[in-house]
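Q: Give me the 3D complex with iron/sulfur cluster.
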Amino acid sequence: MSATVVQLKRQHPYQDDYDRADLVAALTDEYSQATPQDILRAVLAEKVAGGVALVSSFGAESSVLLHLAAQVKPDAPIIFLETGKHFAETLSHKRKLITELGLTNVQEIKPDQAALGQNDPQGDLWRRDADACCAIRKVRPLKGALSGYDGWITGRKQFQSSARLRLPFFEDSGTHIKINPLARLSQQDITAYMEQHNLPQHPLVEQGFASIGCWPCTHPVTADEDARAGRWRGQAKTECGIHL
Ligand code: SF4
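A: Here is the predicted complex, encoded as structure tokens.
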């Protein structure tokens, strides 16, 4: 029964007369023992989740997912949220990865300028209200960018934080299918993959940054902390809002 739903989707990827929750359950069942490569082939080449985009921050470990995706479909749409608050090192790392991996469809999505002018004219909203800043610079732009897609691929992993310990391969966000091909990889797997494929490291990793977002809200971590402990350090906030 489950396989039938996935099979139908494979044959008619852009037909949307299906229940998203049923499809997520079927995909979860069919790909329960899959590798990241299997999942990316299924969603990018066979389109078992319909039209999907990959969302990347070009952060500390982004090269792994981008490299895997490039093996299947180098022209897959890749969304980069250009918040205007990225480290210069992230932007140079992004340019390097685009060139080295041969990515041909990276799209920079920017916040609405009118909303920024009205709510963050000095560019310091992150100091006063980080949730509002993330809403303007990340959540709303991503919502618009994903409006034409059925699903999106993330680079999240279970080991990154206690909140992600049960992260599945497929999720129903209520509007999209979220696909997490790397969910079960360990930090060791990520490091080994990068070494095996000679992938460039984000320049800030050697300074202790394990998870890298906007510069005002990203700090280095110590060896005994979660990878994401440096994000919004000192605040209760742990996610920007695009994964809530
Ligand atoms: S991570 Fe910080 S600077 Fe970036 S959008 Fe969120 S609050 Fe603003």
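A quick observation: The domain at 34-217 is CATH 3.40.50.620 (Rossmann fold).
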